[in-house]
Design goal:
With about 170 residues, this protein is α+β, with helices and mostly antiparallel strands. Helix content is about 35%, strand content about 35%. It has helices at about 5-45, 155-174, and strands at about 45-50, 55, 65-70, 75-85, 90-95, 95-100, 105-110, 120-130, 140-150. The strands form 2 sheets. It has a 5-stranded mixed beta sheet. The chain has a 4-stranded antiparallel beta sheet with strand order 1-3-7-5, with no helix packed on it.
């Protein structure tokens, strides 16, 4: 093969890889810019909650409490509050979704109505999530609010003996 043909072949391969390298550089640059913008959107969201935990003492007739949601950020944010699926029928949060401007607060009512069969102290969580207003990116900030429900009833004795028997069986296994 003539020497010129090798040069042309080398030049074509070089041009192909150079174009591919340029594409990679562009993709990398777009990725860096996208991640930076998404991170800045997430950093613009700030969330405060007061009080930091709740306790419902049902034996004293406490079935409702208020929590305050605070927008500590510089931009409007959308807020969503919910609880664990297992306790969704026990806890009523109103309002459960709303928007707040920068520096604003919102009182949220939390009601607790456990079933008659509930006994002992029950622990669960309420989740408060903040996202930039009008954003569908799913990026934001969140806080878990511990909730304790004191029913005033002792646990069923048959349950205790089953748990004790099961625990002893497990301990004997190891």
């Amino acid at each position: 093969m003539p020497r010129n043909l090798y040069n042309i072949k080398f030049y074509i391969i070089f041009v192909y890889y150079k174009v591919s390298l340029n594409k990679l550089i562009i993709i990398f640059a777009l990725t860096v810019v996208s991640v930076t913008l998404l991170t800045q959107a997430a950093l613009a969201v700030s969330l405060g909650v007061s009080p930091h935990s709740l306790q419902f003492d049902l034996k004293d007739g406490v079935f409702q409490k208020n929590i305050t949601i605070i927008n500590n950020g510089n931009d409007p944010s959308g807020y969503t509050l919910y609880t664990d699926n297992e306790y969704a029928g026990w806890i009523c949060i109103s309002p459960s979704a709303f928007e707040l401007s920068s520096g604003m607060t919102k009182e949220v009512s939390v009601s607790c109505i456990p079933p008659e069969s509930a006994s002992g102290n029950i622990s669960l969580r309420i989740y408060a999530i903040a996202e930039p207003a009008g954003s569908d990116l799913g990026i934001g900030a969140g806080i878990r609010i511990p909730v304790t429900i004191v029913t005033g009833k002792n646990m069923d004795q048959s349950r205790i003996s089953i748990y004790t028997s099961f625990s002893q069986h497990i301990m004997n296994y190891f």
